[in-house]
Amino acid sequence: MKIMVTGGAGYIGSHTVLELLKAGHEVVVMDNLSNSSEESLNRVAELAGKKAEFHKVDLLDAPGMKELFEQTRPEAVIHFAGLKAVGESAEKPLWYYKTNVAGTLNLLDAMEAVDCKTIVFSSSATVYGEPEEMPLTEKINMDAQSCYGRTKEHIEDMLVDLAASDSSWNIALLRYFNPVGAHESGRIGEDPSGIPNNLVPFIAQVAVGRREYLNVFGNDYPTVDGTGVRDYIHVVDLADGHLKALDFVAKNGGLRTWNLGTGNGYSVLEVLHAFEKACGKELPYKIVDRRPGDVAVSYADPSSALADLGWSAQRDIDTMVADHWNWQKNNPNGYEG
Ligand code: UD1
């Protein structure tokens, strides 16, 4: 299939492009490189033995995107492009709504104009907010607690309305839990700009000497050791879930929503200790106040993805952190080095 991947130079995008190329798909990447590097795609090409076609186009450039779709005529889209920092979204809500929501609207217009009606959308478990029940099933109502999360909710709503209006659309909404790790080669991985917001990239920078210590955000949650519990999922398992979801909706039509997580939760300190084992050194940390907006525990019920797609995460927490470390130690400054 010919597949357009928006945000394909980014962290999850580049890993997915690699799996798509390996599976024999033709891939066109559209990325504005605002938070990613084209070097990731050079390395994907080296690993896959073939290249994805690359176009530097912004989601907010509606005419540019229309032209790109007319020129490339993809059969399906995997849509990763967007802004993703929770804290920043509270400071710049209009920028987040414009980029994520209006940008997706531009994308859907460009798709419709060339009768490309199959899309896999990068949603997030953050849409669940702070529900009482655990594990999180797809049936729980969305109630995102941040501006970033609400942009994901709005896009999901838009896609639900679109599918209801026109049954020729094929749509997969994928709610990711916490993506970590890197391709086993250590050639591609997560390269956050500035200070990492997320736990594992932060720990990796402590391990490589770029940061002094980890701030652990609270140790008074009702969890195994008082620190927050999350469902970490290996980025290659996540990428694989996209291929299976695309295949399913392309064949069966309609709109479907799946959680992509492992179903297991690990605390901040458990992840830290797993990373220490992987890198062979003790990593300093300090307990600090809770981060506003954090929930105590979040993990998936991934049984729908298993039942419908035959997908389940294959890589355990030790593999996740070992692969993350392998990437970080070989690329201490990310793609720049
Ligand atoms: C965060 C976002 C979520 C987004 C996801 C993308 C928030 C509130 N949520 O999820 O919307 O979809 O990233 O991957 O930002 N932690 C530390 N020290 C750190 C960083 C994190 O102790 O320096 C803790 C957190 O308190 C949490 C856990 O580690 O318990 C995981 O944090 P993080 O990696 O930021 O992911 P989420 O908060 O789950």
UniProtKB/TrEMBL annotation:
<dbReference type="Pfam" id="PF16363">
    <property type="entry name" value="GDP_Man_Dehyd"/>
</dbReference>
<comment type="subunit">
    <text>Homodimer.</text>
</comment>
<feature type="domain" description="NAD(P)-binding">
    <location>
        <begin position="4"/>
        <end position="323"/>
    </location>
</feature>
<dbReference type="GO" id="GO:0003978">
    <property type="term" value="F:UDP-glucose 4-epimerase activity"/>
</dbReference>
<dbReference type="GO" id="GO:0006012">
    <property type="term" value="P:galactose metabolic process"/>
</dbReference>
<keyword id="KW-0520">NAD</keyword>
<dbReference type="GO" id="GO:0005829">
    <property type="term" value="C:cytosol"/>
</dbReference>
<keyword id="KW-0119">Carbohydrate metabolism</keyword>
<comment type="similarity">
    <text>Belongs to the NAD(P)-dependent epimerase/dehydratase family.</text>
</comment>
<dbReference type="InterPro" id="IPR005886">
    <property type="entry name" value="UDP_G4E"/>
</dbReference>
<comment type="pathway">
    <text>Carbohydrate metabolism; galactose metabolism.</text>
</comment>
<protein>
    <recommendedName>
        <fullName>UDP-glucose 4-epimerase</fullName>
        <ecNumber>5.1.3.2</ecNumber>
    </recommendedName>
</protein>
<keyword id="KW-0413">Isomerase</keyword>
<dbReference type="InterPro" id="IPR016040">
    <property type="entry name" value="NAD(P)-bd_dom"/>
</dbReference>
<dbReference type="InterPro" id="IPR036291">
    <property type="entry name" value="NAD(P)-bd_dom_sf"/>
</dbReference>
